[in-house]
Automatic annotation (TrEMBL):
InterPro entries: CobQ/CobB/MinD/ParA_Nub-bd_dom, DNA_Partitioning_ATPase, P-loop_NTPase. PANTHER family: COBQ_COBB_MIND_PARA NUCLEOTIDE BINDING DOMAIN-CONTAINING PROTEIN, P-LOOP CONTAINING NUCLEOSIDE TRIPHOSPHATE HYDROLASE. Signal peptide: none annotated. This is Chromosome partitioning protein. Residues 4-180 form the CobQ/CobB/MinD/ParA nucleotide binding domain. Residues 204-224 are annotated as: Disordered. It comes from Brachymonas denitrificans DSM 15123.
Length: 224
């Protein structure tokens, strides 16, 4: 089962924007998708509760009789949004679940500095070789020094820069309605969909073979 984890311990980098739109993309292709938070607060449920009934379905976690979170039956794709401050053992446990991981980054020297140690720890993570990891530039303004600095920063990292997402209110307006770029008439968000083309191609590429046996790498229920 594809499990896409959106992760960066730095807050405010756009993890939820990426998570909801990745889930929306999979749902638009006919997949049975679950979008969940790794933390117990389950803030993604707010977005899902605002999602129109006629939109492509995206499922939340199921909660069993013991109040444990479970992936609903029939789900084919999982997207996990992660909280700020996720690190150490908790981060490693989440990475064990992932077939792919997206790291959103903002074109700010302060954000790059704050994320530097995390990215190098991610590169050193001994099991990172069995998952595909990509970087995604967020709230980018073209032809700016800040974006050039971010591109230069990414060149020093062992992960591909998947693309760049522009700074637009489209994401804000759609999120308030429980929607994504992939739920509306393409002409309304044509420029944004074009930016997502290399990202969705990467999402559609087969993930690296998972290692290990039993519950673990590819079982999102294992973390709980």
């Amino acid at each position: 089962m594809p499990v896409v984890v959106v992760v960066n311990p730095k807050g405010g980098v756009g993890k939820s924007t990426v998570s909801t739109n990745v889930a929306g993309y999979f749902a638009s292709k006919g997949a049975q998708v679950m979008l969940g938070d790794v933390d117990k607060q389950q803030t993604s449920r707010w977005w899902l509760e605002h999602r129109p009934a006629n939109a492509n379905p995206i499922h939340p976690w199921d909660i069993d009789d013991d109040h444990k979170l479970k992936v609903p039956k029939g789900v084919t794709h999982v997207v996990l949004d992660t909280p700020a401050g996720l690190e150490g053992k908790a981060l490693k446990e989440v990475l064990k679940l992932a077939t792919k991981a997206i790291v959103p980054l903002q074109a700010s020297v302060f954000d790059m500095h704050a994320t530097h140690e995390f990215l190098h720890a991610l590169a050193d993570y001994k099991k990172a070789a069995r998952i595909d990891i990509g970087l995604l530039a967020m709230r980018v303004k073209d032809n700016t020094h800040s974006f050039q600095h971010l591109q230069d920063f990414c060149k020093e990292l062992p992960f591909p820069l998947l693309g760049a997402v522009r700074d637009t209110q489209n994401y804000v307006h759609l999120a308030a309605q429980g929607l994504t770029l992939f739920d509306v008439t393409p002409g309304r968000v044509q420029r944004d969909l074009q930016q997502w083309e290399p990202i969705t191609r990467w999402l559609d590429e087969p993930a690296r073979p998972q290692m290990g046996k039993g519950k673990g790498a590819s079982d999102p229920n294992a973390w709980y």
